[in-house]
User: Fold this.
Amino acid sequence: DAMVIQNPRYQVTQFGKPVTLSCSQTLNHNVMYWYQQKSSQAPKLLFHYYDKDFNNEADTPDNFQSRRPNTSFCFLDIRSPGLGDAAMYLCATSRDRGGFQYFGAGTRLSVL
Amino acid sequence: EDQVTQSPEALRLQEGESSSLNCSYTVSGLRGLFWYRQDPGKGPEFLFTLYSAGEEKEKERLKATLTKKESFLHITAPKPEDSATYLCAVLEGSNYKLTFGKGTLLTVNP
Assistant:
């Protein structure tokens, strides 16, 4: 039973065309994270929500935004995707900050 | 300078050939070290958490150990289905953030 669900699994967008990635969780965890992972690289944290409290990483580009309308859902919005934004985007949850994180299967984003 | 360094970058083993993967870290005030397995095109799957030097955890053919400066993931008599990238991540001090290494790509040949 999937506990962290990401949709879609694969997303193709055009250069500059806004795109939204979705994440939902059935764990009722307080914290939801978004990571970017490029090929053969470590996952890089973009931001996280602790409940409704949004926490942006200092080096996350302004092009990336997030929304968490309720406990179960979190969205990643890329306002104007560039070629360098092509990557795997991973959503994760944890019960509290500092706990181990459950990851979704990821969304592979391609930018044409 | 990387805070979490994994070695080797890639490891190829024959089925049944035991080996170890290394994760060294330079963070201060380690609160936890995490091992994940990641299959191609999928999200990381949680394996172990270690909290203090000397701690060990086991799961099937995998055993994780922790010292003050590094962690090892020992793989005993691996099978082809153990082929994956193994990621190490650390949680430090008062920081909530997991810092990942780049991973070790393990290939087990039948």
